[in-house]
Specification:
Elements: H1 2-15, E1 18-26, E2 29-34, E3 38-43, E4 57-63, E5 66-72, H2 73-76, E6 89-95, E7 98-104, E8 106-114, E9 118-119, H3 123-126, E10 133-138, E11 143-147, H4 155-162
Parallel strand pairs: 2-11, 5-7
Antiparallel strand pairs: 1-2, 1-8, 3-6, 4-5, 6-7, 9-10, 10-11
């Protein structure tokens, strides 16, 4: 009987798993990424352009002595381009062991949400080139697109960035 109770408690804990996400905006859309992948969030700085880099690569920056590539999420997601402003941020992340920055319009907050609020990606969206979307979180008054950073770039694209 005791083993059955432990299993029930374990299942209950699993179903109440809390995700910690950093949310950011691109235009009117809100996205979330696992907080454990985020190393830091910085104000926009001058980015050095790199010749022949993929279109979605803004360039490189010097982050405390380490040169890291910067990708523009708007370009990566084929969204309309916008000028950077006082809210623009560089979210420094670790994607498959590689540190890089992502330019986003603004960073909103750190969210703690139950995993149960994440719905699978709608079929219409999942049929598009959107493997990087883990699902959609239904929050009180808004939807948040939950991203899988490990799938934002292909293996080939990560290799290219590693050579920059």
């Amino acid at each position: 009987m005791e083993d059955k109770n432990k299993a029930t408690v374990s299942a209950a804990k699993h179903s109440e798993e809390i995700l910690q996400l950093v949310s950011f905006n691109i235009g009117t859309e809100e996205f979330g990424i696992d907080i454990l992948k985020v190393q830091e969030i910085n104000r926009m700085v001058d980015i050095t352009r790199v010749p022949r880099a993929p279109e979605f690569v803004e360039g490189i920056i010097n982050l405390r002595g380490k040169v890291i590539p910067i990708i523009d999420i708007r370009k990566r997601f084929n969204m309309e381009l916008a000028d950077h402003d006082k809210n623009t941020r560089i979210v420094v992340v670790d994607i498959a062991g590689q540190v890089m920055g992502m330019v986003v319009d603004s960073v909103s907050e750190v969210l703690r949400i139950p995993a149960s609020t994440i719905e699978p990606t709608p079929e219409v969206v999942s049929s598009l080139d959107s493997d990087y979307i883990r699902g959609v979180a239904k929050l009180e008054d808004r939807l948040l697109i939950y991203l899988d950073l490990s799938k934002i770039l292909s293996g080939e694209e990560r290799k290219t960035l590693a050579q920059i």
